[in-house]
Amino acid sequence: MAQTKSASKLRQMLADPEKTVICPGVHDGLTARVALNVGFDALYMTGAGTAASRLGQPDLGLTTVDDMATNAGMIAGLDRSVPVIADADTGFGGPLMVARTTEKYILQGVAAFHIEDQVTTKRCGHLGGKELVDTPTFVARIRAAASARSRMESDIVIIARTDALQSRGYEEAVSRLKAAVEAGADVAFLEGIQTKEQMAQVVKDMAPTPCLLNMVGGGVTPLVNAREAKELGYKIVLWPIAGMTSVYIAMREFCEELKNTGEIKNRYKEDGKIDGGVRDVFELCGLSACVEFDKEMGGASFANGA
Q1: Number of structural domains found in the chain
Q2: Which InterPro entries match (predicted)?
Q3: Which entry of 28, 59, 117, 163 is annotated as an active-site residue?
């Protein structure tokens, strides 16, 4: 099964002592296509980006399981050889709902997902005022996900995320992560790390469980590069809002140009060709491959070109 292969490939990456998985955050088909074209070997579907792109809303727990799972599945389906790690928020309810969420993510071909310990009306991990469930409730979420994974005979990687650092302190956060690992989580994710010393300490305290590092521009966590993250011992590094903020900046610039000048001037590559023309985007999204497939199957839809 494609979904099993994707998860197994991610597990192989995590088992490789020389490998740190670097994931750009993508939120739709176009940003995912760009990341794939550049050559990343894993992607991250951001929940914040999904809320912004699908709903035009902030990351305040407004997305449903269907919003998230459908988006994750679309991204995972673009290239089944590239594992997709996806945000699953709180699992969207109690143990029954978490199990259903896990099943949906598995069927969508997602390689890994993370579940957190915030209340259902959650918020971005780099905002203030986060409210948490108690440790038994968090552990029940992870246990339900692990049970559903076993029932589905899946290899999907379960990532336990805690947001306890902000309000409960480091020791409580690590205690929650250890309890989650005992319940079936494969990777530990301490959100909202505030110092490089904490980055290093949690890897040591959670060993041998692999740890995930979240690099949020404008957030509370100091930014480190891939080399530094690897030296600290991290196995997965997310840059979750890379796609979202890039689109925001570029779209703002284009809209301001159109509003102020009445036109958008072409951008040019070094070879003098237009950069980002409509055909460039279509080719990125598989235009030639689609035309060729139609031809190979005996179709004539594009016999006169495209």
Answers
A1: 2
A2: ICL/PEPM, Isocitrate_lyase_ph_CS, Pyrv/PenolPyrv_kinase-like_dom, Pyrv_kinase-like_dom_sf
A3: 59
